[in-house]
Design a protein that fits this description.
Residues 354-577 form the ABC transporter domain. It is found in: Cell membrane. Residues 44-318 form the ABC transmembrane type-1 domain. This protein has helices at 4-36, 38-67, 72-76, 78-119, 123-129, 131-150, 152-172, 174-222, 224-228, 231-283, 289-332, 395-402, 426-429, 455-464, 485-497, 515-531, 570-577, and strands at residues 353-362, 371-380, 384-388, 410-415, 432-435, 473-474, 477-478, 503-507, 535-539, 551-556, 559-565. By secondary structure, it is an alpha/beta fold. It has a six-stranded mixed beta sheet with strand order 5-8-9-3-10-11, sandwiched between helices. Helix 4 (78-119) runs antiparallel to helix 6, helix 7 runs antiparallel to helix 11 (289-332) and helix 10 (231-283) packs antiparallel against helix 11. The radius of gyration is 34 Å and the shape is elongated. Residues 1-23 and 337-341 have low confidence and may be disordered.
Length: 578
């Protein structure tokens, strides 16, 4: 067993390492912004310096005029004061403009970078991260960065004002300046740096709690039907899930807000205490009373910029935490470099068979242990394959492996004799048209070339799917998506087949169709796709239509149980179920 001192040493070592890591990330953040927008930052900083210099000059001249008792000569120069104030306002407004442009460009670049990275990310990695976490970071964290960047112009201006006035105080009276800066510096180190460290910790905890809150929102919205039909579920969800999460959010919000409130109070109190300390310096004969009066006026003016700087700290602290979390998302979804020796190029267009050879996949999840395979299967062009099996047999996992959404862990994929191929390339995945049980409908309709589909094409499919009385197509968009599950699946079929893929994967597509359209799917749509030379793979639980498949694959507990082929003519098979 380790001693208490040993534990303390380890804790200090870990904390020191964490602080160094945080500093490295903070420097990385600053360097990225500076390097991307050097010219804009330089101009903005220069304008802020000019504004601060003008304002300091104004204060200095006002002090002289007050000392001269507002003589006629001083009154005659009042126009200079007005001109300087106007120039200060113009330069400060220009600085605001440049920083606003900088911040919006930076946020747009960050959003684009994250979205591009997400588009390249493997589906299995996105599923591991979870939609609530990703959505909250793309909204709350981006908004936190936006709020913080908006305060930068005022922050720069106030920092420059404080710097110039401190320089003026030092030139006026060194003893009073050292008394002021010594006490203020001590308070800043003890109060501000401590508040920043604890504030970052509170905001980190708050963001974790807010992600749980987003999950509650999803439950309320997407689980509305289940909650409405179960008093027990609704009561449990409200009192055991929602209330504890909201209380956790409230607690961390209170801690962070109270921390910064106390921090501001301490800063204001310290400002008044320093006036008393400087009075003691004057009493000791180290400075004159005239200088003390001047310093008091400067300090009272400084309270505005200082409080503005201190009030910016919560926003900057939250932005820092948000930036770290966004960087973490970027690292989490970074696409791994493929280490296999598979061929990266797509197969020749005239391939006839897709071969899975000893394919296997195991979920890397402590809460869910399941292994698919190893299994070997062949899917021929112009044939329909039904994959059947009970829940949890591995049908959907096999679909995701075939489509390249999950990476092959063992085994290989070939087209005829070509391969093995890398299933993680966009070229491979582009061979497949997929409709999964958790499909998403896009309102825009595109064809195989990535352009808006022609109106006759879409209209013909709407009529074929018997949706022309509910949905219209205009300017590349579908008019209606709020349909029943079966009708939404028909729209998914429309979107899928318009892209004219060589392989189609349908995951229980017919499960939510009415009996008439289910019959139409098996006896008309699938034979039509087969005649077009498409390779069609269907997850099906409809035993009545099992004879319509050229191949029937049965899975049990992740293993290949049997493969059955049918040699009967299609017309005979259809006639047998009509």
């Amino acid at each position: 067993m380790k001693s208490h001192s040993g534990l303390s040493s380890n804790v200090l070592h870990v904390r020191h390492g964490a602080i160094k890591n945080v500093r490295r990330k903070e420097l990385k953040m600053v360097k990225e912004i500076l390097s991307a927008h050097k010219r804009t930052i330089t101009y903005s900083l220069l304008l802020s310096v000019i504004s601060g210099l003008i304002m300091t000059t104004i204060l200095y001249r006002v002090n002289i005029w007050m000392g001269d008792g507002m003589t006629q000569q001083a009154q005659g120069r009042a126009w200079m004061f007005i001109l300087a104030a106007v120039l200060c306002g113009i330069s400060l407004a220009a600085s605001h403009y440049l920083v606003a442009r900088l911040s919006t460009q930076f946020l747009t670049s960050l959003r684009l970078q994250l979205l591009k990275q997400l588009l390249k990310t493997r589906v299995e990695k996105l599923e591991q991260l979870g939609s609530s976490q990703l959505y909250s970071r793309l909204t709350l964290d981006i908004n936190a960065l936006s709020d913080s960047l908006a305060v930068i112009p005022n922050l720069l201006y106030n920092l420059i004002i404080v710097s110039f006035l401190l320089t003026f105080m030092w030139l006026t009276s060194e003893p009073l300046f050292y008394a002021f800066i010594g006490f203020l510096g001590g308070v800043f180190i003890l109060v501000q740096l401590s508040a920043i460290a604890r504030g970052n910790q509170f905001y980190q905890q708050l963001r974790d709690a807010e992600e749980d809150m987003y999950e509650c929102y999803r439950g309320v919205i997407f689980g509305a039907k289940e909650l409405a039909t179960s008093n027990a579920r609704r009561h449990f969800f409200e009192h055991k899930i929602i209330l504890p999460v909201l209380e956790q959010v409230r607690r961390f919000e209170f801690k962070s807000q109270y921390l910064w409130s106390v921090n501001n109070v301490a800063s204001q109190t310290a400002t008044f205490i320093i006036i008393g300390i400087m009075a003691m310096v004057v009493d000791a004969g180290y400075a004159s009373a005239t200088h003390l009066v001047l310093f008091v006026l400067i300090i009272l003016y400084l309270m505005g910029p200082l409080l503005s700087i201190f009030s910016s700290m919560p926003l900057l602290s939250r932005a820092y935490v948000s930036y770290q979390r966004l960087q973490q998302v970027n690292e989490d979804v970074a696409a791994p470099v493929s280490s296999n020796k598979a061929l990266p190029n797509p197969p020749p267009s005239n391939w006839q068979s897709l071969h899975l050879e000893q394919l296997s996949y195991q979920y890397d999840n402590d809460d869910y242990s399941f292994t698919l395979g190893p299994l070997s299967l062949t899917f021929n062009r112009g044939e329909v394959t039904f994959i059947v099996g009970g829940n949890g047999s591995g049908k959907s996992t096999l679909f995701r492996l075939i489509a390249g959404l999950y990476g092959v862990q063992k085994g290989q994929v070939r087209f005829d004799t070509y391969g093995p191929v890398d299933t993680q390339t966009p070229e491979y995945r582009d061979l497949f048209g997929c409709i999964f049980t958790d499909f998403y409908l896009f309102r825009e309709v595109i064809d195989h070339s990535g352009e808006f589909a022609s109106h006759p094409q879409v209209q013909a499919l709407l009529e074929q799917m018997r949706l022309d009385h509910k949905v219209s197509y205009d300017n590349g968009r579908l008019s209606q998506l709020d349909l029943s599950t079966g009708q939404r699946k028909r729209l998914a079929y429309l979107l899928c087949t318009l892209q004219d893929k060589p392989v189609y994967l349908f995951d229980e597509w017919a499960a939510d169709q009415d009996p008439e359209f289910k019959h139409y799917f098996y006896t008309e749509i699938l034979p039509m796709l087969r005649q077009q030379g498409k390779t069609v793979i269907v997850i099906s639980h409809d035993d009545r239509y099992e004879n319509l498949a050229d191949q029937r694959v049965v899975l049990r507990d992740g293993q290949l149980h049997s493969v059955e082929r049918s040699d009967s003519p299609l017309e005979v098979q259809i006639a047998s179920i009509s």
